[in-house]
Structure formats: structure tokens, C-alpha cells
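Dataset card, provenance and construction

Sequences and ligand SMILES were collected as paired inputs. For each pair, a complete structure of the chain with the small molecule in place was predicted and serialized as C-alpha cells. The example below shows a pair involving nicotinamide-adenine-dinucleotide. Curators did not alter the output after generation; any descriptive sentences attached to a record were derived from the structure itself.
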Amino acid sequence: MTDMAERVVGLGLIGCGARLTGVIERVIEKTSGLRVVALCDPSEIAIAQCRERLDCPDAALHEDHRALSADPSVDWVCVGSWNCFHKEHILGAFAAGKHVFTEKPLVTTMEDAVELKAAVEGTDRLFSMGFVLRYAPFYQRIKALLDEGVIGQMVSFEFNETLDFNHGGYIMSDWRRQRANAGTHLLEKCSHDVDLMNWLTESVPVRVASFGGLSFFTPENAHQIERIGTDGEGREAYKSWQSMGIYTRVQKLNPFTAEKDIIDNQVGILEYANGTRATFHTDLNTAMPERRVYICGTEGTLRGDVLTGQLEWRRIGFDTELHKEETVGGGHGGADGILADSLRESMLNGTAPLVGLEDGMKASVACFGLDAALDSGTVVDLRPMWAQVNVTP
Ligand SMILES: NC(=O)c1ccc[n+]([C@@H]2O[C@H](COP(=O)([O-])OP(=O)(O)OC[C@H]3O[C@@H](n4cnc5c(N)ncnc54)[C@H](O)[C@@H]3O)[C@@H](O)[C@H]2O)c1
């Protein structure tokens, strides 16, 4: 990294949509040591927006991701494309010897997980995963409290991620509504939460079961758009987020009638290799969105919600104190800037990323297990899947 510290580090962006442009905007805003030098995206709208927002009018435009990775001015390849392309974009970058930042999820199929694992074993390149919630003060505080032993040993816990109805409508009218593009909803949206569950337990799930389905975003419920009406800016219910996405803005699909093959509600139960047991619940049509945790330990209990930033815990015993703490709330719990600071450090000084490829792999495989359980209606033993990616549970 010595020579990189002496010159401007070049960033090449593959998939220049909303998320990656937002991440890189924060990364480059506090330094002159990083510059966006190359772009690759089939959407002219995305390229134009990205050039303007990241102030990189002269960045080279590459039609092929391999050409971008081979570009000698690119030091870091940043991947924000549709999930189904992440594997080939990451492999292309590694093949060209570049460092990688990728948005979640790492891969969308078990075959891709096995291929990626084999291809990158032994690489000395840096790899950073966009599991932004890992950087959130809320989850960092929970991990610290667990490590301090304030609730003793973790025994069982509940996690959820339930979405505002307009967010649900966005997903159901975006490219994410099809597994071929994004993988399942659990993988695309909740792999954040599954990663957090793996991290907090310091284990991986070995037996899982799951039920789920498409119960609400069906043509029979399209009248719900009219029932609710419009918001203060005249935007229709379930469509009010559509102006934010390039795909949704152009396609203008009705979230109820658009063809899709993802679920809109799912529950899962998990048993971890270390004996911890958990439930996970997601729903895409709620009036009270939550990203809530409730953890029971041998000596205490902890609960909170990252959307509010409120956290409370209490030791088991007579008249023990209820500790109430307030961390940063909001969608990502204030983590976007912290992730950007960390990524900037990695890019400028070679600092090891907080979340890497192994974490991305474990989150993807755990999601594959839960979805295999949902699809098959059986309890799935994940041990053979972990063996395929050389993870010892
Ligand atoms: N960490 C987070 O909190 C978070 C939040 C949102 C999205 N994401 C992830 O970011 C990624 C992008 O999501 P988004 O919301 O920005 O979607 P988006 O639709 O705004 O952007 C995706 C971009 O990828 C481009 N693209 C598609 N196929 C491509 C290809 N083969 N080569 C190059 N570019 C291609 C599209 O044209 C589009 O511009 C996804 O993987 C998603 O899971 C992460």
C-alpha cells in the first residue's frame, strides 16, 4: 500500500445506482486522496446521475466489467450491481488483482458461493462487505454488552425486520422482486440481519425451518392503493418510493400486479452450532416498521430496536436495575457515515475492513438454508452446506 499512499487512489464503480453512489459520495467527500476514475453500468441514467453526484465527468466509461477491472488507473473495484452479478464482478476484480468493496449480498446461489470461495482463497487483496448495520452504534453496543457478560451466556433470541408499506411496494415493483435478479427477499433485504445474528452468536446456524409466502402483494389487493390514497406530496400509497429508484421510475410497475417470485412475509427458526436458538420474522406491509432484537441470556435480558436507537437490559435477580440506553436511531442506525469512514481508511491506508468475505459467505449460506427450508417444507440440516464452503460450524 506504500505507493498508494503517495498518489490518488483510483476507484472503479460497477453498478452506479442509488446505493453505491451514496456510499462512495460519503467515502470521497472528506479526502482528496480518492478519485472515481472508471464507471460501468448499462443504464445511461445511472451513469449520468453518478457522474454529477460524484463530480467525475471524466471518469472512463467501460461497457465490460472486466475492462474496468483491468484499467490500470483503478485500484479498488466497488460493486453495486444487481445481486445476481456480484459474483462475476468480484471474481473479475480479483482476477485483475484489485481490492474490492461490494454491496450485500455476496452471492445469490450455493454454486456461486462455492466458486467464489475457491477462487479467492489465499488472495492478499482487501475485501470489504457493505453490511452497513455492523457499523451501527446500536449493534456495536449490543456486542460490547454481550462480550462484557451483562446478560451471561446467550441462550435464545428474536430478531425481526418489518417494513413500511411503501418500502414493501418499492421492493415489489423493483428489480428485487425477482429471484433471478436478486435472490430471495431474505437474502436481498435481511442478509444484514442474518449476518448480525451470526456475528452476535459467534456461530452459524446448523438446523433451520421456515414458512413464508406471498400473502398481500397480489392482484386481489391492488385496491389498497386507492383505499389509502395519496401522501402530502400527492404520491400514491405503495408507490411513494418509486421516484427514488431508476428502475421503478422508468418501469412504473404496479406492486400488486407486477410478476414476482419473492415472498412478502416469512418466519424462520434457527438452531446455532453453539446451541443458541433464534427466530426471525420479516413482513413487507406494516404500519409500524421494526428492526427489533430481544435476547435472553443465562443472567439477563436485553432488547431494543435500531430504528428508535433505544436499548434496554436488565440482570436477572430481585429488584435489579433496568438500564436504558439511547444510541443513534434511523434506518441504518447512523452507520452510513461510519462505514464510509472505515472504507476510506481501508482505501487510503490499507486498514483491514471490519466485515469481509467470510462474513458475506456465512450470511448468504445461512439465508440459502432458511430458504431451502421454506421451499421444501422441511427442517434443513446446514452442515453439508457449510462443508461445501469449508466452514466448520
Ligand atoms: N447495504 C445497504 O444498506 C444497501 C441498501 C440498498 C441496496 N443495497 C445493495 O446495493 C446494490 C444495488 O442496489 P440499489 O438499491 O443501488 O439498486 P439500483 O437499481 O439503484 O442500482 C443498481 C444498478 O446496477 C446496475 N446494473 C445492473 N446490472 C448491471 C451489470 N451487469 N453491470 C453493471 N451494472 C449493472 C443498474 O443499471 C443500476 O444502475 C444491491 O446489491 C443491493 O442489495 C445495499
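Derived descriptions for this record:
Residues 152 and 221 are 46 Å apart (CA to CA).
The first strand starts at residue 9 and ends at 14.
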